[in-house]
Amino acid sequence: MDMLPHANCIIMEHRLVSGLNLRQVDVFRAVMKFETVTAAASALGSSQPTVTREILRLETTVGFTLFDRRRQRLHPTARALKLYHAIEQAYAGLDHINNSLHRMRTADGEILQISSLPTFAQSLLPEAVSRLQRETPGVTVEIDSGDPRNQSPISGFNFDLGLIEGDYDESTTEVIHLATFQQVCLIPRGHELANARGPLRLHDLDGQSFISLGPKDPYRLILDKMLDEAGVSRRIPVIIQSANAACEMVAQGLGITIVNPLTALSHAGDRAVLRPFFPDAKFVVSALHPVDRPWVDSAGKLVEHLKAVCAEVNARLKTYSDAA
Fold this sequence. Notes:
Family: Belongs to the LysR transcriptional regulatory family.
Helix content: 40-55%
GO molecular function: DNA-binding transcription factor activity; sequence-specific DNA binding
Oligomer: single chain
Low-confidence stretches: 3-18
Domain HTH lysR-type: 20-77
Protein name: LysR family transcriptional regulator
Keywords: DNA-binding, Transcription, Transcription regulation
Strand order of the largest sheet: 4-3-5-12-6
């Protein structure tokens, strides 16, 4: 970076004054970003002496040296790098606000914000959103693939509708039951259990290669407990967090798995067979709505489409049960 003149005359001892102004922030950011006073001045449409003065004033304002001056060059100090990081975070927040404003200005109608577990973003939402768009063409749907329960009610839920598995007991949200499904077994085509008659039972898993979900998955914990109580032992060659990935492992012939039917249905076909499983392990799908967030019309419409899609999925699953 270009050397600033008179740098040695700066005395910083306990001279903190009022906070930074926007001009100082812009100049500092430009010097850090473009690495020389010359380039920063050009980017700002200013002159080198002006930028130099602003940097000196900035150092006086903050009360410590931001640049080491060596061999006619400026080298950012550790404090300068930390300040730059904080400023960039602030600009990122401002960019987020501006992007949100832009989306609101350009949207033809409502903006519906959804926070959904990945399973539902890949299975239920595509069809439900398609129906919503046909019914309400102007709506813009923003989907965040995360667990809405991880958002803090203190800082505020940032969604109009959240999709979760199971129930949820929290006064900050309204819980809407969408559907209850039965967990199913996905089996590689050609496997000895693929053509067995009737629902699969716990003892059918004894000695089988089993693709297991992660150790903290609530449905794995339930299944493990049932198998332990029944004295059933499995071989577990793969443990994986994602139900979708577990199904793909099954399709590769690595073993069988028990997962939610929404995910299993998308993998049933040439490489894998879907079979009902007993005892019935319920898989509940719920929608969440923050009670302090006004309802948007499109959220209510999407809930109805989700219920319809869930009912259709349950009807498809019944054909597998009947066939078994």
